[in-house]
Amino acid sequence: MKKPKKILIIGNWKMNLNVSQASLLVSRLDKHIKTRKGIEVVLAPSMLDLQPVSMQVDRRKFRLAAQNAYHHDEGAFTGEVSFTMLRELAHYVIIGHSERRIYFKEDLDEIRDKVSACMRNGITPILCIGETKTERRAGETRQVLHDQLMTALSNLTAEEVSEMVIAYEPVWAISTFEGDIAKPDEIGKDLTFIRDQVKELYGVQTEEKVRIIYGGSVDDHSARAYLEIPGCEGVLVGGASINYHKFAGIAEAAYRVVKENAEEKE
Ligand code: PGA
Questions:
Q1: Torsion-angle region of 231 (φ positive above 0: left; ψ -120 to 50: alpha; else: beta)
Q2: Rounded distance from Cα 171 to ligand 1 centre (Å)
Q3: Kindly report the CA angle at 210 between 55 and 121, in degrees rounded to 5?
Q4: Model confidence pLDDT, tens digit, residues 207-226
């Protein structure tokens, strides 16, 4: 029998917390989150906090992600940090987050280059894709997801795609923007569409291995409902991830889902 994949719980701290605040949050998370079978918890601190957090954190309990990086490995690019520099620090890098697409004007080609650079440096990309409210209302969701996905993956082999994490993050559901609450039955078909696209282009083995997760206003109350959507293998959490109580609640909700699924199979 195939081993079930671990549920991924990723906390994107965004541009929050200075070094001492980050350290306090790590101590609290360490106290309140247990190491559980079937769950993988990932913290994505700011670039500045990443190094001190990496020294403090129990790597058996938490993996680390960076929130961004530049696609060249080194050189005269003032203010940037490369994937090469992040190699020893981060297991994952978040790429294509809607805040980067919208505020920093990252386009499809730039995101494709970042995904390639990430893979080239042995880091796992967490690729975020998602449509705006206007696009959804205009019936363009599938086209947008298709375009974002296909360009981002275009330089990768099927094997590389199978190692990735793809986060479906409808822009209208992210607290930064409209922050509407996406109903689980409303987005289930979009997650399936993404999965089907991967299957169509890279084959069933890739589709079985790639991890597809959801993000957008997830908190300790709503996490369970999203994790129960068939094919939803984790959550990417923004606002609620810098509140240790809420983030620990999300990890517990994930553990209950894992436990119930295991019991059902017995
Ligand atoms: P949110 O952010 O949970 O605050 O909506 C999610 C994200 O930006 O990944």
A1: left
A2: 9
A3: 45
A4: 999 999 999 999 999 999 99
User: What is the value of pTM for the model shown?
Assistant: 0.97
CA distance 29 to 10: 13
Q: Return the closest-CA partner of residue 238 out of 116, 101, 55, 65.
A: 65
**Cα separation of the two ends of the chain:** 13
**DSSP per-residue codes, 144-163:** HHHHHHHHHHTT--HHHHHH
Catalytic one among 169, 207, 233, 252? Answer: 169
For 201-261, list the strands marked E by DSSP: 211-215, 234-237
Q: Give the whole-angstrom CA distance, residue 162 versus residue 141.
A: 23
The full set of domain ranges for the chain reads 7-265
Which helix (H) or strand (E) is 87 found in, with range?
A: none
Segment 178-202, tens digit of pLDDT: 789 999 999 999 999 999 999 999 9
Q: How far does residue 139's CA lie from ligand 1's centre (Å)?
A: 23
Q: In CATH, what class is 7-265?
A: alpha beta
Cα diameter, the chain: 57
Q: Return d(Cα 256, Cα 77) in angstroms, integer.
A: 46
Q: Give the integer Cα–Cα distance in Å for 197 and 202.
A: 8
What span, in angstroms and rounded, lies between the C-alpha atoms of 64 and 89? 7
